[in-house]
Amino acid sequence: MSGTAGEDRTIEIWGGVECTVNRVCDEYHDQLDRNGHADRLDDLERFADLGIRALRYPVLWERTAPDGRASFAWADARLGKLRALGVRPIVGLVHHGSGPRRTSLVDAGFVGGLARFARAVAERYPWVEDYTPVNEPLTTARFSGLYGHWYPHGRDDRTFVRALLTQCRATAAAMRAVREVNPRARLVQTEDLGMTASTPLLAYQAQLENHRRWLSLDLLMGRVDRDHPLYPMLIDCGVPPGELEELVASPCPPDVIGINYYITSERFLDERLDRYPPWSHGGNGEHAYADVEAVRVVAEGVGGHLPRLQEVWERYRRPVAITEAHLGGAREEQLRWLVEAFDAAVAARAAGAEVLAVTVWALLGSFDWDSLVVQRRGHYEPGVFDVRGPAPRPTALAGLVRALARGERFDHPALAPPGWWRRPERLLYPAVSAGGRDAGGGDGAVRADPRAGAERDSDVTGGPDGPPIVIAGATGALGRAFAHLCARRGLPHRLLGRLEMDIADPASVEGALARHAPWAVINTAGYARVDDAETERHRCARENTSGPAVLAAACRERGIRLVTFSSDLVFDGARTTPYLETDPARPLSAYGRSKAVAEQQVLAILPAALVVRTAALFGPWDEAHFVAAALRALREGRPFSAAEDIIVTPTYTPDLVHAVLDLLIDRESGLWHLANRDAVAWAELAARSAALARVDAARLARCPGSALGFVAPRPRYSALGSQRGLLLSSLDDALARYLVECDGG
């Protein structure tokens, strides 16, 4: 880790649990149920072990008093435990919600109802001093009153303004009620504080949105008087002047202003619609324009956390904290984002701003925020913990958080390169300057190279961005996939063929590791012809058993991480439910035996190695796999035969590679089963693929496996489950993405 991260003990580390309870029509989307925290009290011990000083924690109105009568049993157990653990709760009462069913953000009763609930919470927990009665009122008003995503699904300025004023008035009323019980109570007010840039034509719209981004805080501060730039708009939207005057006369200034800054928080508006996809098109009644993430189009890039902290401090001169630091996506990018946020907090404090803390958000990850939580598609973004296993599993972020909390440095090779938002490939559209003018020559287009990581994969090495990952298996589809996605993820790597590193030759391995000095080796090399292995057993054993063992010994000597791959063919097929990592290997074939012995030898030599069992790979960057062969034959009207009695769990190669890289960065070890969810027969896989691709499957011939002329015996059932974590998506989801990728994205 470079820079100042971990070197300033004055910046506290806080944590937060994604706890949104948003209403869509009459359905509630509850993150606490989905991440399992609703039923796991011992999560609080995991959080405390990170060394965090405070925890943004839900005692939500909708959950605690859904029918008017409050039941505090859940909160009693959890707040009491936090108190015993020495972690200060910052209690949230409404988090992107609209209250119980009997009220809403446009209901006059919302204000009094939340105030009464807040008083009940304060009376129940008089020792609690920090409150966020309403999280991100401006953002919630936009999503509920302007864009129509959440209840009450308004799509007009009047509903937006009413929802915003209701939340701000409710915040003030709630804090008055709390302070009647506990005069020391502090308001920690959170808000997303992104900003908007535009072309010159749309400067007026950008100015409006940049005034609007402060509106919730200005209202609470009592600043929205007749001189405020948005006062006329509020009056035009039907707000009685007396309502605004009340907030001016009796303000509720936050004791701490919490900024929630995301990579999508900064926006760019452009009337040149042809440059952008249809989903980004909108308008204001006067001009049609695209609204896209600034990071994808502005040549100078995004400002990041530092300018947001500085401008909040300069505007209000109140203590500031980053109250949500979170990035979805690859693990190394999550690490880089948190380090950048912390470094920004340190820099802002050094420049004179009273920055109190950085909050590691979504400790347990979040569900379906890629669709703004309007659908239940099961899209999960891990956080400090990954909840897809039997218990929350700490990710690499946990080590970083502990180091930051202790004021220590955190070293990880994946931190050396810049985040994707600082790399050229972030640009998806013709680049423009921050002032809206085209950047570059000609038509102004500055685009990322769509081939990045393809032709040049084998030339990417270590250097200024840190030591590389060595990938063994340059001629194989899996090795090429790792190189492709390492390049996309900004992970320095070196893809090696046999001439550069023969994995079964100790001298060759030593020479390659000495030349490239990697921090990790990913072994995708090996003998893959299952039937030929029955007559080429010595060659199969050399590549699949001896090679991984040689790598394990060399990596042990040099302190290098190792990943190697095994197969579902280590099992005999006697089960009828998915195999787990602890099930004994009983291979039927020479190929299966070579993999089973390799597993044992590698883990005996190097217990820290990561050994991944997988099966039936299919991917967009090669055609030598079952799904591609089936679709090719059926499209051409040729017959295609597939076994209807051999059950497998197919695996989408990009999903596998991403999961393995995340586990490698997390420093996971031992056996892992990684396959897309759904056990299917080969014939069913062909049929599903054809149906999703809209290809006529009339010439698909379903037959027993014995009719296909296999030389090596196959298990009739080799589906892979996991007791460590189901990290990959459903098969249908993977097949759909595969077909999109094959069609050009």
Automatic annotation (TrEMBL):
It comes from the Bacteria. CDD domains: dTDP_HR_like_SDR_e. It catalyses: dTDP-beta-L-rhamnose + NADP(+) = dTDP-4-dehydro-beta-L-rhamnose + NADPH + H(+). It is an enzyme of class 1 (oxidoreductase). Pathway: Carbohydrate biosynthesis; dTDP-L-rhamnose biosynthesis. Pfam families: Glyco_hydro_1, RmlD_sub_bind. One of its GO terms (cellular component) is cytosol. Residues 469-723 form the RmlD-like substrate binding domain. One of its GO terms (biological process) is dTDP-rhamnose biosynthetic process. Catalyzes the reduction of dTDP-6-deoxy-L-lyxo-4-hexulose to yield dTDP-L-rhamnose. Belongs to the dTDP-4-dehydrorhamnose reductase family. This is dTDP-4-dehydrorhamnose reductase. It comes from Sorangium cellulosum. The gene is rfbD.
